[in-house]
Design goal:
Shape: globular
CATH topology: Glutaredoxin
Strand order of the largest sheet: 2-1-5-4-3-8-9
Structural class: alpha+beta
CATH superfamily: Glutaredoxin
Number of helices: 6
Radius of gyration: 14 Å
Largest sheet: 7 strands, mixed
CATH class: Alpha Beta
CATH architecture: 3-Layer(aba) Sandwich
Helix content: 25-40%
Distance between the termini: 24 Å
Strand content: 25-35%
Number of domains: 1
Order of helices and strands: EEHEHHEHEHEEEEH
Length: 168
């Protein structure tokens, strides 16, 4: 399992773009994790699935609402990572009104989740292999804080906890 001091794994996530710009076309665009995190402070949180109850009601809204506080604490970007395709993440981004605040990144084949060692097997519930619920603060590609939830919990990966860590 990834730990504080480790670099983020080599992986490519997918981001759905509504508009063209900065080399991004409309639709899914690859995001090279190493390149996208280089030289930046990232508040990254991951969750089991888009449109699921806790994720939609509490997890994403907390980060959207505290966007300004994260920026003031020196965070360059906020990333939400889920084992969903870019189209689902794009639709969820519209529904959650994350534009300009939280990058909604799809890990469709769970490659990033597997590489971090933070997977959650929900096969028995018909959802397959997913990401565990966690948050991490990443500086220049290295993990400086990591908050992994116990199964079925939402206590340490919330925006308020990671914001306190970002403020240091």
């Amino acid at each position: 399992m990834i730990k504080v001091g480790d670099s983020l794994p080599q992986a490519t996530l997918q981001e759905y773009s509504e508009v063209e710009g900065e080399g991004c076309s409309i639709g899914p665009n690859p995001v090279d994790v190493a390149k996208a995190s280089a030289g930046k402070t990232i508040a990254l949180f991951a969750l089991p699935g888009a449109f699921t109850p806790t994720c939609s009601a509490k997890h994403v809204p907390g980060y959207v609402q505290q966007f300004d506080e994260f920026k003031a604490a020196g965070v360059d970007e906020i990333w939400c990572v889920s084992v969903n395709d870019a189209f689902v993440m794009g639709a969820w981004a519209r529904e959650q009104k994350t534009a300009g605040k939280v990058r909604m990144l799809g890990d469709g084949s769970a490659d990033f989740a597997k590489a971090t060692g933070l997977t959650l097997d929900l096969t028995a519930r018909g959802m397959g292999l997913r990401s565990n619920r966690y948050s991490m603060l990443v500086k220049d590609g290295k993990v400086t804080s990591l908050n992994v939830e116990a199964p079925g919990k939402f206590e340490v990966s919330d925006a308020a906890t990671l914001l306190k860590q970002a403020k240091g």
